[in-house]
Request: fold
Amino acid sequence: MKQIPIIVGAGGINAAGRTSGHHGYKRLVLPQLSSADAESTLQDLAVRMGIEADQRATQAATHARILAGTLVRDISDELPWVAQRNVRTAALMPRGFNPGTRYPSRHHPSGLQMMVYAMADALASLGLPWQQICEHVKPDEISVYAGSSIGQVDAASMTSLVQQSTACGRVNARLLPLSFPDMPADFINGYMLHSIGQTGAALGACASFLYNLQRGVQDIQSGRARIAIIGGAEAPVEPPVLDGFASMGALATIDRLPVNADGSPDHRRACRPFGDSAGFVLGESAQVLILMADTLALEFGANVLGMVADVYVHADGAKKSITAPGIGNYVTMLKAASLARALLGDGAVRRICVHAHGTGTPLNCTTESRILESVSDLLDGARLTVTSIKHLVGHSLGVAAGDQIAVALGAWQYGWIPGINTIGELADHVNCRRLDVLTEPRETGDIDIAIVNAKGFGGNNASAVIVSPEATLGYLKERHGANTFATFRHRRESTLYRIADSDAKACRGEETIPFAVHHGREDHERVHIERGVVHVDGYALPITLPDGRALIDYLHGADGL
Reply:
């Protein structure tokens, strides 16, 4: 292992709000926060939602409007086509927020607009100028892995493509390419990062974010990259997707919702993981993580949000049905727990919090709780802290694990782990003898590792081990020495100041989206070849061409084996 991947930036947008500054996380635990922290997030949401100060409205009324337009909610008045369906609950972006108005979106699909916003938010969270970073790394030392598990399916992409084609209408040339599931990575490469490094989108249904995270982690661990951008975007609340999941019986329908005191459906409690589950709720989200090799993070004085110790991905093996769960998630979770125990030593279980997949379907509740019980067995049978967030932000399909990681990072900053507040007690069919499933927020305490779990139809399973910033800083000091660490901390002061300044500007609505279409010279004019390297105009450092020595040595038996 040449380097370890440090999380130095996180940005995005979902039903809870903006990821940078941990504002989306803070929306989930508002009652537990100080008045100043809560007010900054409410102000930020007001800006996202276009809610201007109204002298006639009381502060309480304005706050109520903000809260009502976020998280899981009845969306039948936001999307009128939903009103006639038996599924009317979802977690759309904050009501009134439109990322396409913040840059020249040119009829981009919703998911790509969200991806552009998420990437800009992540760059702002760095506290370091992106161009300055690029001047210190080779162009092929930056990896970008981002995608969408279902692609883009709205009126600006696949839906219109199918409708126009089957009706023998005119098919717009942009509809097909903009529908591709790898387009989130392509968009941020071409229009924002201008990256020519490793790229792609690993697809694993609802585990896709962790599939891409694994690729970025491996790139940094092997030395293939010094920076990895991991992302995903989903805008799945469209008729084909909603109707498809509804036909499978996977979604919480209007007739299965709890009721309020007045007898009306309680949409806020539609998703009830590990309780009297009735199905999941679709959510919109785009999330981005920026990883750096540890030496580079120290060199720049980057803000350390945590460390990705590893990501495990496994298939299910033989299956009864392609949509049924299988054994693969046992393997990923047991590997993750084993690594966590190795890092933490004695008493490991009390310092671990599992962010469960927790969709709120009865089958997932039963099977995932059994898997978590096996993890408890591995950790000497002690009670295992478990939470889930899909009851608050919905299930964003391939981006779901990105939502979970964003919340884990926020909990380490502000000290509260969200609980599953839509259930009063655990269901009888949940195997929970050794599971401490949180039903209300709890202080983070000495939790140093979050195991993030994700499962997807088809046999796609992934589990990631995320280490707290405090523990990560301890490892960095131990590895690199007190003097190097002291220099890093001094450099980080300027980074933290710039992060705070960017966040304050965003809360006032002064954020910018660095989106630009290339109008420069032809490609062949920008490439200059020298012996062993390639120079590309616009990039400070050259790309080293492979010399093949390692392969040649292996083929000729000269590698020492």
